[in-house]
Amino acid sequence: MPEQPPYLRIADELRQRIAEHVWEPGDRLPSRAQIGQECGVGENVVRRAQELLISQGVLEGRAGSGTYVAEPRQRVRVVRSSAREQPEGSPFRADMKAVGRQGDWESRTDAKVPAPAEIAARLGIAEGELCVRTAYEFLADGRPVQLSTSWEPYDLTAGSLVVLPEGGPHAGAGVVNRMAAIGITVSHAVEQPEPRQATAEEASLLGIQKAALVTHIRRTYYSDQGRPVETADIVVPAAHCEIVYEIPISRA
After folding, report:
1. What is the pLDDT of residues 186-195, one digit of tens each?
2. Which pLDDT tens digit goes with each residue over 81-100?
3. Are residues 85 and 177 in contact, defined by beta-carbon separation less than 8 angstroms?
4. What percent of the chain has pLDDT over 90?
5. Phi and psi at residue 109, in whole multiples of 5°?
6. Cα–Cα distance between 236 and 119 in angstroms, integer?
7. Angle at CA 80, nearest 5°, toward 76 and 83?
8. Closest C-alpha among 150, 237, 132, 247 to residue 195
9. What was the pLDDT predicted at 141?
10. Which long-range contacts (CB under 8 A, 24 or more apart) does 244-250 make?
């Protein structure tokens, strides 16, 4: 039987110490040099072991401070459903309220951004056509649980009260309700989820380890005329959230 890689052996050792309450949630771990010396391995082996446990939610890294035993954290249920769209208010806040969390978000909007090739293809426009791009960081009880970058064709909303998703009287109302305010009926959305590893930027924003598993959802809303009116890249950390799809059943 092949010998277990050293970093997996160290990960098991660290996990065992936590299980035996040598270290409690919130405790800071000794330095990598100290752990390596105790276990007879180099610091790089300890680093790989800690990165594995961080990706699994057992440990958490804090920039400039060290590595800590993660506090117990219940996974947030994120429901993907046509019923998410509310007549008033934010779909995300409604989702979080349903699971007893306080939902909020931070955003940054840039108007008149040329559409990259992939985004243009998803929106059915020419590459380089202007879009309104909004980057979101969604929070549950103040902790990041989801990222999203949204793109809307600028010519669709230019000159209207909804041109800025987070500005004006319809700020934060969601795509369906904002489009309805300018006479556009959104009939359906298409979502394509796939697992991948987090980028360095995503990991930093979500408070997870680089290369930790995330679910990347490519979502596009369509009008009842078949035109794409918005597309977004949604990133959800697997260790912190579970994604559930509700599928409505139509009855004759």
Report:
1. 999 999 999 9
2. 765 555 566 777 877 887 78
3. yes
4. 59
5. -110, 135
6. 20
7. 115
8. 237
9. 86
10. 244/77, 244/78, 244/79, 244/80, 245/79, 245/80, 245/81, 246/79, 246/80, 246/81, 246/82, 246/83, 247/81, 248/81, 248/82, 248/83
Phi first, then psi, for residue 233 (nearest 5°) are -110, 115
pLDDT averaged over every residue in the chain: 88
pLDDT of residue 87: 57
Q: How many whole angstroms separate alpha carbon 225 and alpha carbon 152?
A: 16
The span from the CA of 12 to the CA of 94, in Å, is 40
Residue 177, classed as helix, strand or coil, is helix
> Helix 6-19 to helix 43-55 angle, to the nearest 10 degrees?
60
Token look-up 């990259």 returns 116
- Beta-strand pair 143-153/130-140: antiparallel
Give the least confident one: 21-30, 34-43, 128-137, 236-245: 236-245
Q: What amino acid is encoded at 166 in this protein?
A: E
Residue type, 173: A
Place of tokens 């019923």: 83
Q: Is the pTM of this model over 0.70?
A: yes
Q: Are strands 228-237 and 59-62 parallel, antiparallel or unpaired?
A: unpaired
Q: Is the pLDDT of residue 197 over 70?
A: yes
